[in-house]
Amino acid sequence: MIVKMKKLTLLCTRSQQDATLEKLRALKVVHIEHVQAPSSGKLEEARNHLLYVQRAQEVLRARPDTDPTGKDADQLVDAVWKLLETEKQLQEQLQGLKHEIERISPFGEFDPRDLKKLQAEGVYAKLYKLSLKEPCEIPDSVAIEEISRDKTDRYVFAVSREMFTLPAHEIRLPDRSLSRLQRHLEKTEKGLEETEAELQSYAGDKALVDKIADAAADKVTYLETQAGMGTDSAIVYLKGFYPADRESEIETAAAEYGWGLTFEDVTDEDEAPTLLRNPKWVKPIQAVLDVIGVVPGYKELDVSAIFLIFLSIFFAFLIGDAGYGLLFIGLTLFGKVKTKGNEAAQPGLNLLLIMSTCCVIFGGLTGNYFGIPTESLPAPLQAITNDFMTGLSTETGLRDPDVAANNIMFICFVIGAVHITIAHVWNFIRKINSVSCLSDLGWILSTWGLFFLVLEMVIGADAIPIPMMSKNILGGMVGSGALLILISLLAKKEFFGLVTLALDLINNFVDIISYVRLYAVGAASLAIAVAFNEMALGMGFKGLASLGAALILFLGHGLNIILCAMGILVHGIRLNTLEFSGHAGVEWGGIHYNPFKKKNETLNN
User: What is the largest CA-CA distance in the chain?
Assistant: First the structure.
């Protein structure tokens, strides 16, 4: 359920501003809407400090835990930053040394100071790289000594009693000899190791740095709220939104602190935040919404319950393996034990438990356990399979994989049509007092007409397990649906919709077909499992070969599980957030309800 919001305007004197903001933050109720763009010197300083602390936080999080240093909080971040600066300088120094060594290593070991002494005595020495393909002309007054060569060039030492320049690539003399450069390189690498070890010693202070970062973030939020307030002479004021059922808390605080208040209903022009408040059984889906970072708009439908139900069904079809489902259940229960007391982890684990249970049920009905043929399963597992879903013929007593595939696809299309119908039925009920409801009634009719057309085109009229409707009835359903949509568009004067109506009907047809991905991905997962099982069987389970077979099974099924997980993200979530949501009119463009509070404080919603 999307919680009803109301608008708040709060007024206080300038002298009360800080006390007002502190109390408002303690209430954890008001989602602030800035009256003006926040800007101040203190705010800019606080933002820079937050970035400063977050950089130290990021560096320490990347390192394994160790014991705390006991260092003072004020000194800790500065110490980490000094080490980061030292590390940066050493890294730059290291790159420079490596480049210099690479540049002069073809000339071997020599001391540049000796060459400078020769120059003082009137002997000029230079280093050159001469091309083997294009030899240059060497003056008689210049003597050269080849030091080394590679496939394309030779590296020489050129000497003369006169100043000279050869028509070739001259190599600048280094400041130090090759051996001194290498010693400096070793010293720099050692310095980097020591710096890294010192940074690692601070990894035990992650919790303290997290507290510092949270405090810095709280200061930024406070100053943004303060700088975003409107001013009028001696009065300052702020605006925001709050859950309507918590109005009394604001009134009580206003009476105590002497605030001026105005409460207003949210209008269509307002960008009110969305607060979802659902029954306990629906809350697990919040884990998915948090991961993908979306929330329905304030004026849209809360589809959380439908999302949970159908995502669990999609999970079962896309994974399709009872063995994998049991494995997921075991890992989930282990995770719940390890995270006992961690409330933030429970919604995600509960969601995985629900989806895995659905997967076990679907896998049991289809007789799929780690890709093992149904005929090879123990009799109790064979007994719980569903004849329709496994393509079992009552006449021959044999399972036909083609019939099973058609039946599973049929179920997928039924799920798709029902899913889309729920969206339009929901909207029809909401719009029942408006002519707009005719549009949704039209889409319901056209969806079921197109559903039978999809069955005929994809599965075939002779292969579907229900009687096929006549073309006249199907045409009448789609035509009547289109007519109702047309009447609704004309009544609402949405003339552009008339132009796109044909395309919208085609999109509806495509949306129904898109649910075949549930079968396709599940079938691909089964094929991969079967392929790796056959590879392992081909290697055998005798002697050392059994180790190879076990490795194949472990890696093969592990890869399959990873691909299945990707399928849930790509297909399972997509069918809810695009196909279904498109028909329900949910654009997922809502603003998360984020009341003014300290970062790590929990909400009382």
Answer: 110
